[in-house]
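FORM 12-B: Structure-to-Sequence Request
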């Protein structure tokens, strides 16, 4: 729950619209820690995606970036001068003390 609150603050500050957050119920052992995998997807512009990633890095919680997909495409409904939309999918593991 605390991580989800931190995640919401990071996304809001970055200006990213979070489309989905899927926590895995599978907790894994990782040495002296346990890890909980999360899949996060969102939409924004390139700057908001970048601010989101740097915001995740700046949190006090120990996380590991497992995979990242950035997809930038022009929406044909937008004007030709509009900035491309960035779709982001982040898979990360959150470390917790045993």
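FORM 12-B RESPONSE
SEQUENCE OUT:
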């Amino acid at each position: 729950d605390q991580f989800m609150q931190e995640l919401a603050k990071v996304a809001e500050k970055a200006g990213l619209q979070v489309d989905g957050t899927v926590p895995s119920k599978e907790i894994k052992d990782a040495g002296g820690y346990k890890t909980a995998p999360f899949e996060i997807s969102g939409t924004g512009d390139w700057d908001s995606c970048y601010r989101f990633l740097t915001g995740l890095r700046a949190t006090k919680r120990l996380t590991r970036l497992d995979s990242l997909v950035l997809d930038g495409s022009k929406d044909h409904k937008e004007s030709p001068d509009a900035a491309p939309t960035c779709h982001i999918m982040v898979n990360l593991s959150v470390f917790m003390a045993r």
